[in-house]
Design goal:
The chain is mostly helical and 182 residues long. 73% of the residues lie in helices and 0% in strands. It is elongated, with a radius of gyration of 22 Å. It starts with a helix and ends in an 8-residue tail after the last helix. Keywords: Cell inner membrane, Cell membrane, Membrane, Transmembrane, Transmembrane helix, Transport.
């Protein structure tokens, strides 16, 4: 079964079939050959996404898009700048803080990187930062969003691992202070 699956996948790849279709076609053929009814595959696919917690993900995406379109990221940058902008290297700290604020609201690391980066990369370049350093700083500050609740990856992990989303959020928030809430 495994040999058939990977053999078909490699054959489809060599024929130039796009990867998504190669994976799907080889999987469907291997399941059909092993006698699995294809209706079971459809039922399992829909059962896998039948989760109340997954409803939150489109709302986080919408919130991140609305914030990016509404120029909220610029206001978050101004707020972070008022807190730590006076320090030496303060613009770097502002970048990280603005990324943290935006990630805590949007729940998405990619949205954070795009929204904060669009306003801070030009400013970092203007202040004399190397463009590669500015881009890497913004990319790194966007990844903080994964560990700051509410986070889309935390929700997906909680659904897959069948864990409580609220406990995961609480632990994600409190681990920085070494608290353990179970």
């Amino acid at each position: 079964m495994t040999l058939l699956l990977f053999g078909l996948f490699l054959l489809f790849m060599l024929l130039g079939v796009p990867i998504a279709f190669a994976i799907g076609a080889s999987t469907l053929y291997a399941l059909h050959q092993s006698g699995v009814p294809l209706m079971v595959v459809t039922q399992q696919m829909f059962q896998g996404i039948n989760s109340f917690a997954l409803v939150a993900i489109p709302m986080f995406i919408l919130a991140g898009d609305l914030m990016a379109q509404g120029k909220v990221s610029e206001k978050l940058v101004s707020f972070a700048d008022s807190l730590v902008g006076f320090m030496r290297g303060g613009l770097s700290v502002v970048s990280v803080m603005a990324g943290m604020f935006f990630a805590a609201i949007s729940g998405s690391g990619a949205a954070t990187t795009a929204a904060v980066g669009s306003s801070l990369v030009p400013e970092l370049k203007r202040k004399g930062y190397d463009p590669a350093s500015a881009a890497s700083l913004i990319a790194a500050s966007g990844t903080i969003g994964v560990v700051i609740p509410p986070s889309v990856p935390m929700i997906i992990y909680a659904v897959i691992a069948q864990q409580s989303v609220s406990k995961l959020f609480l632990n994600g928030f409190c681990r920085g202070w070494r608290w353990d809430w179970g």
